[in-house]
Amino acid sequence: MNQPVLLSPLLRQERMPHIWCPGCGVGVSLNCFVRAVEKSGIPQDRIHVVSGIGCTGRVAGYVNVDSFHTTHGRALCFATGLALSRPDSRVVVYSGDGDLTAIGGNHLIHTARRNVDMVVICVNNFTYGMTGGQVTPTTPENMKASTTPYGNFEYTFNLPALMEACGATFVSRWTVFHVRQLIRSLEKALKHRGFSFIEVLSPCPTLYMRRNRLGNPLNMMEQFKERSVIRNGEGTAGTSLEEGADLIVGDFIEVRRATFKECYERRMTEVLGERFVPYEGVR
Amino acid sequence: MLRGETVLRSGKHFMDGNEACAEGAIAAGCRFVSGYPITPSTEIVEHLSRRFPEIGGMFLQMEDELSASICFQGAVWAGVKGMTVTSGPGFSLMMEHIGFAAMTETPSVFVNVQRAGPSTGLPTAPAQQDVMQARWGSHGDYGIIALSPASPQECHDLIITCFNYAETYRCPVLFMMDETVGHMHGKVTIPSMEDIHVVERRISTRSPSDYAPFRVVEGDVPEMTRAGAGHRIHMTGLTHDERGYPDMTTAAQESLVRRLCGKVNNHVKEISMMESRHVEGSDVVVISYGISAQIAGHAVDAVRAAGIRAGQVRLISLWPFDDEAIRNIARSTRHIIVLEMNLGQMVREVERAVRGIVPVHAVGNAGGRVIAPDCVVEKIREVLR
Ligand SMILES: Cc1ncc(C[n+]2csc(CCOP(=O)(O)OP(=O)(O)O)c2C)c(N)n1
Ligand code: SF4
Fold it and tell me: What is the interface pTM, i.e. ipTM, of the complex?
């Protein structure tokens, strides 16, 4: 029986249903992304999505664009080669907090430092979802995970601050409650030249919330709503996610700096002049 | 961009194996290299970092070998030819992405200028200790191709073959140099462009509805595409169907992994390269590869001058292993000696292929220096006593 087409053409109809649990925030973030791409006007064949491994990493398999599901933590590296070689495409890295900031942490800081022209969407659900809810660099202090049964005793990453320090030129944080703001922010990032990083706080009801008795997904949405304070354009100082404090969201940083490719071409032109032949990749 | 303008002028040049490898890669059409410095392979990327800005290529020094070994694969999926370059400890870090390239059928070239290990080992000193790691280093079953050059000239010529094989078989191709060959200076003849055989990427011209990135239409290698070609493909390191979609069934695993192995291992006759001399009717044959084959050559010449019927086989390709050719050699001689700069790696393959037809003996060391021809001469005399 033919089913009516309900999905955006940017999603792969034939791959539904997806693997995410009911109430999971990854799908919400994906809907926002799809809306942002539609609004950006970027042609479908000029968007490429690269993911690492994890529940969030499965996004690459559901988007109806050229999409690459790579290795755990290394999506950014693959994306760097792809973005430099397809300068007329927008390359988006879509992955989880563990993938991007633990195993991929070294790549994250260096891809941001180089200001490689790409959009990085980091779904932060405070845990490793795919592997059963282990602790991650963004698990809040004292919270439980399968490998911190007595509560997390490590310090926690503040991702926007980390990204600002590394030189990212567009840095935001939203939650899956902030659907309209997130779409707008993603659209801006898609049009931004340089390295963009968007952290999306998201519920993992199956593992993180259940283990920490945080109620149902709606409870977390209410938390996101009640605790959040929007602060646009004021940098990332004071944005750490501390228990009990305001949850600061917003487009924190938006600056224009020469991208990796522009820096390379500027330098080579200065030194080599006419002899310089820019790397075109494939157009 | 005219390739003729970018490659070296044809004729004789004087250079070391590392530079020859870099120039050969350029001649093969490689335009994207991601790497991380490590002796004794660094000169390759240093050379490319100087050459590429003048010929429209790009070298990227990454933050480690984990990133270097997948960054260029992103460029490959954009439609470019790419490679990475490393030695010893860096090769260990690259195993993850040899497996990824095998699973995603990414035409990819990995250069390993071998040095003595394990671990940090004996930096800058030569070895041939990574030849089994090349074959089996990443987890899982898969097929790879590995070539081993014995001179600066071959560093140039065979890296071109590596790129051609990568395009033909859509698999990782490993160029197993070693420190001695990498740093050996010698005459390298650069052919004119018309005389260099380069296999270009075949991008499928099928319409998106008629195309699947892992569907085999002819032979056992699927047609390639590139990002932005309109095919809207998905690729993954997960077990997948012909559309590239994850398929978590044992049936999918069975057919995919069998094909990934078979598309290389069933073509051993097309891939395999070796040189042999004086094998027929000999009393002993020395089998070797890479720099050790030069040593074997001296030893064989020396004992032949003394009237011993010794022959020589030089393996140019290491993987897939040509069992049948080795077995035929065993049928033509009385003893086989395998010479390699390790404590016994390829000798196991030779023994397996020979199936006891003749005795197989090993001459090796723990790496760090090439083996003196005298050791081989001594062994030849010993086995024939
Ligand atoms: C090299 C490697 N190590 C470990 C794993 C196992 N693994 C798969 S996903 C994952 C964590 C994913 O967590 P996160 O990035 O936070 O994504 P989520 O599932 O929460 O969306 C781990 C450790 C792997 N696939 N590869
Ligand atoms: S385990 Fe958590 S992150 Fe993974 S799909 Fe389920 S709810 Fe989402």
Answer: 0.97
The whole-model pTM stands at 0.97
Domain boundaries, position B94: 4-195
Are B160 and B27 found together in one domain? yes
**Domain assignment present for A186:** yes
* Measured distance CA(B280)–CA(A228) in Å, rounded: 83
pLDDT per position as a tens digit, A157-180: 999 999 999 999 999 999 999 999
**Binding-site residues, ligand 1, Cβ < 6 A:** A 53-56, 72, 96-99, 123, 125, 127-131, 136
Instruction: Specify if A224 maps to a domain.
Output: yes
Put simply, the answer to whether A69 touches B60 (Cβ < 8 Å) is: no
Instruction: Using the mean position of ligand 1's atoms as its centre, give its distance from the Cα of residue B168 in Å.
Output: 33
Distance, in Å, from the CA atom of A206 to the CA atom of A19, rounded to the nearest integer, reads: 13
CA of A56 to the centre of ligand 1 (A): 9
Domain stop point among B195, B213, B230: B195
- The residues of chain B scoring below 70 in pLDDT are 1-5
Is residue A3 pLDDT above 60, yes or no?
A: no
Are B186 and B284 members of one domain?
no
DSSP A63: B
> How many separate domains does chain A show?
1
Q: What is the pLDDT of residue A282?
A: 87
Average pLDDT of chain A is 96
Q: What is each CA distance from A165 to A85, A111, A158, A168, A197, in whole angstroms?
A: 27, 12, 11, 8, 12
Q: Which domain holds residue A147?
A: 15-274
